[in-house]
Amino acid sequence: MGLALLIVAAVLFLFIAVVLAKTIRIVPQARAAIVERFGKYKNTLSPGLNIVVPFIDKVRYVIDMREQVVSFPPQPVITEDNLVVSIDTVIYFQVTDPVAATYEIANYIQAVEQLTMTTLRNIVGGMDLEETLTSRDEINTRLRGVLDEATGKWGIRVNRVELKGIDPPPSIKDSMEKQMRADRDKRALILTAEGERQSAILTAEGQKQSAILTAEGDRESQILRAQADRESQILRAQGEGQAIQTVFQAIHDGQPDQSLLAYQYLQMMPKIAEGDANKVWIVPSEIGKALEGLGSTMNDLKGIPQEVEGPLKRVDMGPSEPKVPETGGTSGSSNAAVQAAIEEAAKAANPGRARAESTERPQGDAE
Fold first, then answer.
1. Which of 103, 104, 128, 149 has the smallest CB count inside 10 Å?
2. 318 secondary structure, DSSP code
């Protein structure tokens, strides 16, 4: 009897546990549970603790309400220029109506995949290869518009469509690489040419500036050289003027006469004989008379007196010039020096006559 009661209690406890399990349903966050009563849709359970009628209500599906990402395998697509390319797509979608996603379509993921492939073939079929490779944004926009419109009645919203990869055939890849390499070589040549042009322009401008600076330097150098020559000529002329003035002053200080001119003539005679064309030089015996005639000829020269009477008036040369002392016996000493020079020249020219005169002179002195 006690064992029977124990078995009944265990069965009753198990029945209560099963009833509670069928009655209480916990739905996770961002999920939606579809409840059916006798195979017909009854309601949708929200996240949290929910109570259903056991053995009558049944949770058929639990729908994920979060945004889902589905990547489809590469699919061959033919472009307008009859080239086959493989395109990978990625779809971002979200279930907005769990009832429609449950009862309007059997498998909404497979339906989205097939719809994506057919729409993609339709869009890419109207483009050539180059346009397909460069128009990803346009393809994504058109594909999203078609998918969003078709999946709206399924309770699905397509948020974003991305082309993960577009792979052309290997031969097209090789051609594209060659074209890209040619374009890069062309750009490199263009950049090199532009660099050489800029270099040539800068070099020409530098040479121009250098030539301008050189010309300006030559002009300034010539101007400075001309100024230096002018100042040098001026200083040289001033020096020559001062030298002439000094010589003229010295002549006035020396008080020259006819005897001094005759003495200067005798000093110039050896220099006259030094010429290359003078092969023979004859000194006449009447050199004394010739010198006397020279002296008599010099008497007629204007401005040169026969004899000087006292010192002449000195030309004022300024306080820096030395003063020459005035002497009264200059005329006599100059005449005596000239006479002595004449006698020595006559003796050298005619030794016999000089000896005769020397023998006759004592007699005259004695008389």
1. 149
2. -
Please give the pLDDT value at position 17: 84
Q: Please give the model's pTM, rounded to 2 decimal places.
A: 0.47
Find the domain containing 30 and state its range. Answer: 18-63
pLDDT digits (tens, 9 = 90+) for 299-315: 444 555 555 554 444 44
pLDDT single digits (tens) 104-132: 888 888 888 888 888 888 888 888 888 88
CA distances from 367 to 131, 356, 357 (A): 154, 17, 15
* C-beta separation of 324 from 314 below 8 A: yes
Q: Which amino acid is at 249?
A: Q
d(Cα 86, Cα 75) in Å, to the nearest integer? 5
Average pLDDT of each block of 10 consecutive residues along the chain (367 residues)?
78 84 87 90 90 87 90 87 87 91 88 88 87 85 87 89 84 82 91 92 92 91 91 88 81 68 69 62 52 51 52 48 42 53 59 49 42
CB of 12 within 8 A of CB of 20? no
Residue owning tokens 């401008």: 205
The pLDDT value given to residue 204: 93
Given strand 67-78, what is the order of strands in its sheet? 67-78, 84-95, 156-167
Residue type present at position 218: D
Q: How many domains does the chain have?
A: 4
CA dist 27 and 11 (Å) reads 28
Q: How far apart are CA 178 and CA 162, in angstroms?
A: 28
Cα(126)–Cα(87) distance, integer angstroms: 15
Question: H or E stretch including 48?
Answer: strand 48-51
Q: Which residue has tokens 């017909």? A: 40
Q: Which of 68, 66, 69 is nearest to 31 (CA)?
A: 66
Which of 137, 168, 199 finishes a domain?
168
Is the separation of the CB atoms in 31 and 62 below 8 Å?
yes
Which two tokens mark 71? 């990547």
What is the DSSP code (8-state) at residue 203? H
Instruction: Kindly state whether residues 225 and 164 are assigned to the same domain.
Output: no
User: What H or E segment, with its residue span, contains residue 87?
Assistant: strand 84-95
Hunting for tokens 């030539």 — which residue is that?
211
In a shared domain, residues 83 and 53 = no
Report the candidate in 27, 98, 22, 92 with the shortest Cα–Cα distance to residue 57. Answer: 22
